[in-house]
Amino acid sequence: MFQYATGYALARRTGSDLRLDKVSGFARDRAYQRRYGLDGFSMEGDAATTVERFPFLASRLFSRLARQPKALISSLGRGVIVTEQVPMSHSEGKKTGFHPELLGNELGRSVFLDGAWQTERYFKDSAEEVAKVFRTPPPGSRRYLDAAKEMSNGNSIAVCVRMYEEAANGAGFWAAPLEVYTKAAIEASSELRDARFFVFSTTKRLLDGKLLLPGKIEYITGDEGYDDTLGVFWLMQQCTTLVVGNSSFYWWAAWLAEQSNPKVKIIAVDNFAHEDAIPDRWVKFPIE
After folding, report:
1. Per-residue pLDDT at 170
2. Of the residues 113, 137, 173, 268, which has the fewest C-beta atoms closer than 10 A?
3. Would you give the DSSP letter of residue 18?
4. Cβ neighbours for 280, distance < 8 A, ≥ 6 positions apart
5. Sheet holding 73-76, edge to edge
6. Angle at CA 229, nearest 5°, toward 223 and 230?
7. DSSP letters along 243-260, please?
8. In this structure, are residues 244 and 269 in contact, taking their beta carbons and an 8 Å threshold?
9. What is the pLDDT of residue 169?
């Protein structure tokens, strides 16, 4: 979603056509085994052809043969490829993940974006349009609608826990300890009366009894029957307070919630890859 929003905003600024590579990044995602899953949104841009995807492959091969990391901006015969420069582990330390070069028109009209681009600063000038693209209608399920009604009473806290249990090759280092989510949620509840906690995650099994929250808890997880991805995405946006960890899925639910309701409070566990991922207006909660 960050990749689309960044590309969409850049295409608007430069007057370029937008192409979506739905193959390259997923074909080599051995750590998280992700698959493209944005077909449920009404997005602009045609799918990139094999020829249009070739510069990504060429750039990776050249970097491997040269035995050196990719530069931020590299010239190609058809334009330029921009490769995000961010830390790949916490041991590399927090640093800026924002490259202002993407905000101007100096790159030209043929640009290939290679990265996660996990900050709203790349698309802030198109925020209203991006919000329309990713805003989803209410699901048809009565269960989801009943849960949303309970969340709308002003004392609801969404605790969005990213477990990284599917991560391979040690990539789960991005997961924050569960006690951090607990502390953040308790801090959020201190301003509410009779806070109600809605825990969003992949499975209740790994969390039950480990999140010691001071109030009634309902788990919004697949093993509890909440298996409609877009329905869950919509449901998170109905809460008045959100505690989110390092997850694009949860980040976007929080961002869209505040686009609809500026009074929504967002607490972000500070385990994102770089310092620009969390907007300044959100509350940063330390992991230590």
Report:
1. 47
2. 137
3. P
4. none
5. 73-76, 79-83, 111-114
6. 145
7. EE-S-HHHHHHHHHHHHH
8. yes
9. 52
- The single residue listed with the structure tokens 């295409």 is 11
List Cβ neighbours of 3 (8 Å cut-off, separation of 6 or more): 113, 115, 116, 117
State yes or no: pLDDT of 68 exceeds 50.
Answer: yes
Does residue 270 sit in helix, strand or coil? coil
DSSP 154: S
Tokens matching residue 278: 């969390």
How big, in percent rounded to 5, are the helix, strand and coil portions of the chain? 35, 15, 50
Q: Which residue has the tokens 């070069």?
A: 101
Q: For the whole model, what pTM was predicted?
A: 0.89
* Beta strands at 79-83 and 73-76: parallel, antiparallel or unpaired: antiparallel
Give me the mean pLDDT over the 33-50 stretch: 87
Q: For the chain, what is the mean pLDDT?
A: 87
- Which is more confident, 40 or 159? 159
Looking at this protein, which amino acid is placed at residue 196?
R
**Which domains, from first to last, does the chain contain?**
2-133 (no CATH), 139-285 (3.40.50.11350)
